[in-house]
## 1
Amino acid sequence: MARNIFEKSRTILQKASQLIENTMIRPLNRKVSTQIDNQQASSVGIHPAAFELASWQKSVLSPREAWIESLKAENSEEKRIQLLNPTVFAHYPRIDLLFKNVRWQKLYKHVSYANAPVRHEISRSLKKPWPQKGMGKARHGDRRSPIWIGGAKAHGPRGPKTYYHELSFMVRLKGLSTALSMKLAQDDLHIVENLDIDVDDPKAFEEVLDSRLWGPSVLFVDDTDFMPERISLVTDKIPHYNLMPVYGLNVYSMLKHTTLVLTVDAVKRIEERMLYHLNRTNMPNV
Amino acid sequence: MTSSGVDKALSLVRNLPRISFNNLRDSVGKRKPRERCRGRYGGKTHGCGQKGSEQRQAYMRLGHGGGQNPFYMRFSKEPYYKGWHLQREYLPISLHRIQMLIDTGRLNPEEPIDVTQICNTKLFKLDPRKKQYGFQITDEGADCFDAKINLEVQYAPEHVIAAVEKNGGIITTAFYDAMSLQAAVDPEAFFNRGVPIPKRMLPPHDALVQYSDPKQRGYLADPDKIAEERFI
């Protein structure tokens, strides 16, 4: 019985790693095989059903698929499929991680310049307003006190205050994969072969994208920061179409733009980087 | 076919409004506004009581008892934790775990596997400051262990030694004192300190027997006697 349990866990691991390998970026003509090798199992002396992956495990590990489209007006009839790694593109929709990331992105740069002078900083005389006794008035030492109009603020904001903080590495990572997964799930993610276009007029380009219902605002992401000339000139005129290299990808931008367009190179780079960071064991102090 | 929770969640999200800044929320109960203490709600004396040593923050030490014989002084001591500060802890790793690490490529069976290699996988937290003196191997998974390795740990029982040597491997038990262990656990951090490499001290008296015993493959034992034991 004990032997069976350990053999089972070893063989499950082997099958899982096979499936994970299949979800990595591969030549697109090959089919995804989720068939488990029963012959191997039976040679070890275990019933195939004992180590078969549960259906929920298969669904978690199976890759997602997206059409590879083109930014040019005319679409060719043959369309290829891009396989997307489920760890990156089918992450559980953690809305709270998205919230944390957006809040962090907005707040870490923020400096509050609010400063309320304390009573010794108010420029008013230190002279005792009236004698201590005999006046029938309340006793006061100076006109700078917080209870005086024009006096100090007792517990007010003090000086420039930074809201700089660092969000945990894993929260940032999983925020990115949540954002990508949400975009894919809500049909706001499109994969294109490259960022080549065939129109020079910004209005014409807008019409092309509007006809496909590609959202008011679009974020184009490529692996390089040296974008093709045509699309650079066209999107320069349109404020709601933006170009971005992969290293600039962030949760705030992904949520700000309604549609996210990734090139095939960008997808490959994102997956490679994300999976590296999610699985590394030599994590420095991040 | 049953779908996983992730699939169900993503298919739910598919039919909901587009995610944007006005849809986001932090996890429940995370952010609460600070309660101000004003009036009868935490105000006036602000939890400090009325006059006396308490409001004047002149407290007596914990357990004082007001002058009578304190509780902690009424009873004699018992030797429950005698020698506790000298006890050594060895983190257990099963043979099954080692096999998994080799299968997943986290440990290289071609190279000797010792404390440094196991700590380099970053899957185990060995803290010499917590009186943890190394690793011990447990015999869980000894039945299906089939890796030929050169293993050096701090303790291994008979079954484990038999399992490792059955596949043609070598197992040794070696002692690292606290200073040397700190260097071994994270060599990079140690060398960054610029401190000379410490000399590895001999084991304490109560461990000398174990590490000189060929039956336990001690590093101080006679190699010929170890060879004899391997033969047996």
## 2
Amino acid sequence: ATPTHLLLCSSKVFIQRHYSSGTICKFQTKFPSELESRIDEQQFEETIQTLNNLYAEAEKLGGKSYLEGCLASLTAYTIFLCMETHYEKVLKKIARYIKDQNEKIYAPRGLLLTDPIERGLRVVEITIFEDRSIGSGR
Amino acid sequence: MHLGVSESMRECEYSQISTRSSTPMETPYKKRTPKKRKWEIFPGRNKFYCDGRIMMAKQTGVFYLTLILILVTCGLFFSFDCPFLAQQLTPVIPVIGGVLFLFVLGTLLRTSFSDPGVLPRASPDEAADLERQIDVANGGTGYRPPPRTKEVVINGQTVKLKYCFTCKIFRPPRASHCSLCDNCVERFDHHCPWVGNCVGRRNYRFFYMFILSLSFLTIFIFAFVITHIILSSHQNGFLSALKNSPASVLEVVVCFFSVWSIVGLSGFHTYLISSNQTTNEDIKGSWSSKRGKDNYNPYSYGNIFTNCCAALCGPLPPSLIDRRGFVEADVPQLAPPTNGITIYGSTQSQQSHTSTADMKTLRVVVLASLLLILQLSSQMARGHVSTASPASTIKSSTIKSSTVSPSTIKSSTIKSSTVSHSTASTVKSSTLSASTLSTMTAASTVKSSTVKAVSATAS
């Protein structure tokens, strides 16, 4: 019996953070050249832009977040033992969005988005899969 | 084999899958080692307690001193001065004292035990990618380049982002590397030995509340102990008043010496909060007008009220280091790629967040799809494989797979096959998301986020 080997190779592209708006979480929308053959520039930009908007929503300062902050400090932050912070709620939303994007757009093109929270919000890691196979001894 | 097998495999446990291996290949993984939590392998110099829930700096001696001072002083106050004051003046005094004391203790513990905003270190892939980019930027010369910095314009001010050699990342603005804890911390204020932790983005508000409430508590105790002594000396004379409650003397001394530093510190931090600066920035004079007349703080919101609200009541970001998550199994990685493409022969250690039930299902589906690929590839093994484009040659030395016996890898060329394209459509998109396949023999263990070589025997 001659063994046949199927190999799935992958390379990774890292989308770095964009700091020109300050310390808020925002990723660069510049289209990496490695993805040129795989996906539309517009599609990619839309994904990153939506992610940026979601992170902005998480860190937004406004009436609602102040109210939550004040309420939390009054209860000595014990309220977070039973309740999720606004930021955590948005992070869950982001996780669902990324899963959805992977299923609908990225996986059919052999790409995989990794949730930035798993990389400490430093990068958006995109894994590019290529199928190769080794045929041996035939 | 058909995809229906995935249904039955959903109920399969990890060990059941591996026993279905048809080759006499031993599973490379130690199945019985207990899973470690990420705090156990955390690279920084922190101490963890309560299975990762509590996080402190390495040196905690001064923290215990702080705790003892507060507890002893308050204890003495409540035992010796409060009965007198409650009787002579009003019982509200001990109540207010009690509330202040609890608040101080709560904020102190919160500051000391929480993650200040530590940035996790870069994964090996990320670090390699950054190194490559920096090399390209430097023209690829062999000499060690000068300290790596990136300039970025924030709100009209040019800010330099420094590269951290320990954490292998470009530090975000306002982040700094704490040499005591050996971590990069977001919005790094300072390392406080009194609380036994760094003060950063996530615990600055607790720190501020701590020193503010401690100032009030110190002044409160000081004032009422003096009141006690004065009232007592009206009745019995000054010296006998002192003799009757020696504890009061001790309290006065402690409070007198601490009030200056603590109230001073509270005032200083109130100034910092209202101008949205960190201690680090203030000490370095980063935004001082002495540096240049165009120098201003780009992070300030413009008015004191917004700055205060943002610092104290803004959204609390979650911890980025996921201390209580589980570490995925650690197996040696391949030799570094030569052309940017990584071919995996064994899993590389990947740390993912605590796996959910989704991961299990994903693994099973990936497994099933791979088995399908194997079946199809074995059917096409005899003469149906077309070489599409010449793939890069892979020397056998780059594949350090310990799970595939050397005899099965003969030729060192990879031929791309049409199998992949036809099976791509059958592979559901969810299978590619965050699942790793350990070396496959026929069916084997599946880990998250690594891809392994698959071998199958062609009948």
